[in-house]
């Protein structure tokens, strides 16, 4: 049986193509939604782009017929824009007022009263679903096709119980045939002795060879080393040039950003595998103009990028304490030596940036760029939409590696949640690809206090 699906504004802002995904049912858009889209269309961010895109789409349907009477959709349903609320009160509860949400609810209620088809109110706003239920409307949330639930989130690792002899053989040879274990490309593996759970070995499944290969757990990256198995898995993938896309997910203090930057410094400065290290973070809301802040571009970015600079300072401190410039090494950063010029630590970071070895920037200006042979780290990626993630990855040129880090439980973007975050969707979509790797970091290593706060609060 056909239904009338009445859309809230946030549905269209999350997915401009949502109107084509309700099969042969009718899609109804209250005029208040159109007015709200008009307010968002000037925003220079993902929300603004979505508002402009859906407005253009509705306008194309307008050219095909009368939207108030209904225009056929490719899916078999009809698209309608309703505006006549008549003289009836907007809602049965006057205290709800005439806000945009109330007017949208009122349009859905009036449609239910006037027409025989069942009415379903579609919104991503939890409170609005509750209000809809209170006034007698059936309300549902809108889940995108690519959404990922917490229970289905790919962890990137698996425990496999084997005999002690298998663990010993693996430690000796460094490899094990992966047949029969049903592993995904680059899935991390902990081999556990069936009789002695403390007897373990760490590996990663290399799909082309069909083998689980041992990882090097004690790898030094500018003084930074892995402190737990999950971090060891992360380091292994971060330093493997054959893996061009890495996603690191974990709560605060698990070392996501620190490990990514340390690995990037090693690959750029020591191994010369990439021309530069680029670290970028979304300015929440994504793409917000930073022109209102005083100073040059670097000064404008400083408040947003301070966590990145904090990690850089920690890494440089771990490596050498003081930093200096060696004229014979073309300005490379190294340990303090006799007769060498000492510089403050902050000056060392500035020196790396002046050399072009490190670039710290906002994601606002990444659209349209081509970035070959670069080690790119996208921090706080949980605040990105699927489309923004796609925009970033498609900037990667030949020989570029992209690392996304974030905590999907700390999303600041009001239009995203765990299931729709670009970070979680990216990890799920790429889990079967040979050039992608993912790991979920669990154990906090920042400090006992930080770990306690993450678990208790």
What does this structure look like?
The protein has 457 residues and is an alpha/beta fold. It has two domains: 4-140, Rossmann fold; 220-456, P-loop containing nucleotide triphosphate hydrolases (Rossmann fold, 3-Layer(aba) Sandwich), CATH 3.40.50. Helix content is 33%, strand content 20%. The strands form four sheets. A six-stranded mixed β-sheet has the order 3-4-2-1-5-6. Strand 14 and strand 15 form a beta hairpin. The longest helix has 24 residues, at 297-320. It is globular and about 75 Å long. The two termini are 47 Å apart.
Summarize the helices and strands and which ones pair or pack.
Elements: E1 4-7, H1 9-14, E2 26-30, H2 31-40, H3 46-62, E3 71-72, E4 78-82, H4 100-114, E5 119-122, H5 126-134, E6 138-140, E7 157-162, H6 164-173, E8 175-177, E9 188-193, E10 200-206, E11 211-214, H7 229-238, E12 245-250, H8 256-270, E13 276-281, H9 297-320, E14 323-325, E15 333-334, E16 341-343, H10 345-354, E17 358-362, E18 374-378, H11 386-393, E19 401-406, H12 422-429, E20 436-441, H13 448-456
Parallel strand pairs: 1-2, 1-5, 2-4, 5-6, 7-9, 12-19, 12-20, 13-17, 13-18, 18-19
Antiparallel strand pairs: 3-4, 8-11, 9-10, 10-11, 14-15, 14-16
Which structural class do the helices and strands define?
alpha/beta
Spatial gap, N to C terminus: 47 Å
User: Would you report the number of β strands?
Assistant: 20
Shape: globular
Mean pLDDT: 83
CATH-level-2 architecture of the largest domain: 3-Layer(aba) Sandwich
Please tell me how large the radius of gyration is.
Answer: 26 Å
Biggest sheet overview = 6 strands, mixed
Proportion in β-strands? 15-25%
Output the CATH homologous superfamily of the largest domain: P-loop containing nucleotide triphosphate hydrolases
- In CATH, what is the class of the largest domain? Alpha Beta
Q: Work out the helicity level.
A: 25-40%
**Low-confidence parts:** 285-290, 321-345
Number of separate domains: 2
Number of helices: 13
The largest sheet has its strands arranged as: 3-4-2-1-5-6
